[in-house]
Amino acid sequence: MSSPTPSRQESLTRALDFLAAGEWQRAHEIVQEDKSELAAWLHGIVHTLEGDLDNARYWYRRTTREFPGSAAVQREIAAARLALAEEQRA
Question: Does this model's pTM top 0.85?
Answer without folding.
Answer: yes
